[in-house]
Design brief:
The protein has about 260 residues and is α/β, with parallel strands linked by helices. The chain has two domains: about 10-205, Alpha-Beta Complex (2-enoyl-CoA Hydratase, Chain A, domain 1), CATH 3.90.226; about 210-255, Lyase 2-enoyl-coa Hydratase, Chain  A, domain 2, CATH 1.10.12. It is built from eleven helices and nine strands. The strands form two sheets. The protein has a six-stranded mixed beta sheet with strand order 1-2-3-4-6-9, sandwiched between helices.
Length: about 260
């Protein structure tokens, strides 16, 4: 089933295909290397908001040779400080609703994952990079600063000083190194990121929805809490998750031998 029924022309640049409980959301602006215009970001926001309740995991990927080459610099105009601040903040709800939405999002990365494209990928929960992927934050060399939440999310993946190095020197990080330092969790051969991300999404979609929700919303907050607060938050989430009917059925299946077992 396809949700490719654009109401606004810009929605044609963000296409959605449903595969059972999985939604594949594709950035479809290959002539611009899927660069992020304000219109494209608004379309991403709308596509996520319109996902049916039956969707339990999302794969975000890019058409053409690149995932996303960053901000569409053709839209970069002379703004005063207030306008720049407001423009940056206009992107926050879009990326927040990916990171803190209803279902897990898995990014399939290839080619350029640069600037705003890396900020978009960092808002996802799992990242799969193929060997053609490369990561960069060229804002420093262009006299600007990240504005899509990258200074908050990316250091949590790779550390403050690695991000500082990337922005100060313009260093490009190849896929294998990116996985080693935490930019992505999986490395696959060229052209296989989408298949791997889809397979992961299918696995994630089998989890109890409340467990996925607790992982998405609880785990990042617990990681930033004090130990005492974290222990309390964990116990609250454990109690809520195990009270769900689906969780109870899964535990019963494990106990009676009909449920899946952990295997190497």
């Amino acid at each position: 089933m396809s949700l490719h029924e654009p109401v606004h022309p810009l929605l044609d640049e963000v296409q959605v295909t449903l595969q059972g409980a999985i939604a594949l959301i594709r950035l479809a602006r290959p002539a611009k290397r899927n660069a992020l215009s304000d219109g494209l970001m608004a379309a991403v926001h709308q596509r996520f908001a319109e996902l049916p309740d039956t969707v339990r995991a999302v794969v975000l990927h890019g058409e053409g040779q690149h995932f996303c080459a960053g901000l569409d610099l053709s839209e970069l105009r002379d703004r005063d400080a207030v306008e720049g601040l407001q423009h940056s903040r206009s992107w926050y709800p879009i990326l927040r609703d990916i990171e803190q939405g209803r279902v897990p999002v898995i990014a399939a990365l290839h080619g350029a994952v640069v600037g705003g494209g890396l900020e978009l990928a960092a808002a996802c929960h799992i990242r799969v990079a193929d060997e053609t992927a490369f990561f960069a934050l060229p804002e420093g060399s262009r006299g600007i600063f990240v504005g899509g939440g990258g200074s908050v999310r990316i250091p949590k993946l790779i550390g403050v000083h690695r991000m500082m190095d990337m922005m100060m020197t313009g260093r490009v990080v190849p896929a294998a190194e990116g996985v080693t330092i935490g930019m992505a969790q999986y490395l696959v051969p060229p052209g296989e990121a989408l298949a791997k991300a889809t397979a992961l999404a299918e696995r994630v979609a089998q989890n109890a929805p409340m467990t996925n929700y607790a992982l998405m919303h609880g785990l990042p907050r617990i990681a930033e809490q004090s130990a005492d607060s974290g222990f309390f938050s964990e116990s609250m989430l454990a109690g809520i998750a195990q009270s769900a009917p689906e969780a109870k059925a899964r535990v019963r299946a494990f106990l009676d031998g009909t449920g899946p077992k952990v295997k190497p």
